[in-house]
Amino acid sequence: MHKFKSLFFKASILVIVLLFFDDAWAQNPTNEGFQSAPPSLQHWQNPSVFRVNKLPARAFYYPASSEDEAFSQSPWSQPNYQLLNGTWKFKWVNALSRAPQGFEQVAFDDSKWDDFAVPANWEVNGYGSPFYHSHYCLKPNTEKIELPLTYNPVGSYRKTINVDNSWDNKQIILHLGAVKSAFYLYVNGKSVGYSEDSKTAAEFDITDFVNVGENTIAMQVYRYSTGSYFECQDMWRVSGIERDVYLYVAPKVRIADLHAQTTLMNNYTAGVLNFSALLENDLGDSADGYSLAIELSNSENQKVVSKLLDIKAITRDENATVETQITLPKANLWSAEIPYLYQLKVALVNPAGERIEWIGQHIGFRSSELKDGQILINGKAVLFKGVNRHEHDPVSAHVITRESMRKDVELMKAYNINALRMAHYPQNPYIYHLADKYGLYVMDEANIESHGIGAANQGWTYNPEMHLVNKPEWKDAYIDRVSNMYHRTKNHPSVVMRSLGNESGDGVNLELSYDWLKTQEPNFPVISEQAQLRRHTDGVRPVNTTK
What we know:
The protein is mainly β.
């Protein structure tokens, strides 16, 4: 726990003394009445199941259908988007045994259900109780998974949508920005998938589940799941859908991901862009004759470089990667003091020469490296004057408006703060956009905090051998969460270091997570607070220091 973990920005810096405990946990401080999971595990009880039919993690951007909208941060008026925020039909129960059966079916009668906003947390809207509980969020040192079977609130959601015929013969993707702690997804009565990791987006290709015209989307969200073991942050505990929900469509051959990695050379004067794009083919046949148009412009919107890259034939239901390197001999560098941004515009070109998909990314040429015991930005040592920021609002809990985020960043800059730790999980994508624009050095942090079942230097029982950080059945879930964090912000110049979570214990699963990050960017600083002086951290980060 960090002494500054309770600093929240909302026009002024607020220290909140938190009061409530959830009834089920507060009345059972020793976790009496918890039941071990039965031999036949459901997804939410199984540590080896954390994503089902979920699309791979990717860099965050809004794919556009026109050049004019390539850099838009609010694409909702574009014909290829449908924002699903707003009113949903909602039913909350305090136990899974009371959850409505067959609710996902199109003909299900939800007329007596409540109207409920999305995004919104349940507990600050009259459904259950928020609680703040630093320790014993789950039973520590346990041989078996123990989740509450008799008390596990479930929220069931339904929404009717219309799909325009202009979306026919395209890929239709559902984006859910953040859902806590786990959920099942259904479309038109059919099971689509399952997801955990409540602080990164879940995307599902629902093309084969929807029809032109009226469709029903249904979700069932669990307050507690195996994902809860990773989400014992020292903060208010609330549940629900916390960020934007929307549909977007893409061509049958589309850009599935892109990576714009920058570094410096020639004594930190030349900027190097290592670019790669992942192309996906859902045509049902081989895709040939496509190309990728790349354009790099400076902050004055003057074109610096343009390229046209041929794409080799992509066989049916396969992917292809296109790569290139761009060097600017005298690049304008990005830093917190001078956050100079270039505009990278990427367009997918079909065999007829038409540009059918656009993606815009603001990129910065900067380097971040560890050398002689110091983190260097653009070859120079930096004094990080930073704060920890939780996503918390005194009224809406973990649902944060863009205006609130903007005020936070403006307040930080006004007080000469130059660094921001995303405490203790990946935060709303818009805050990274602001950090790039205004100039803040960011420590991104994986959604891995399990101090509620024990962590080193906490002054209470901690048994590393019993901890999930050393259990092989949890390994893939660790790496999945680290991968989710990495991919979504890999193109942001403001992210200059990454953290393997806060108070997460230490063991082989964090070692493997560190190794995974190093395979992506070998020289990029990775910090693991619990590793202390062991090999799988690039620095020692005492979180409870007072100096």
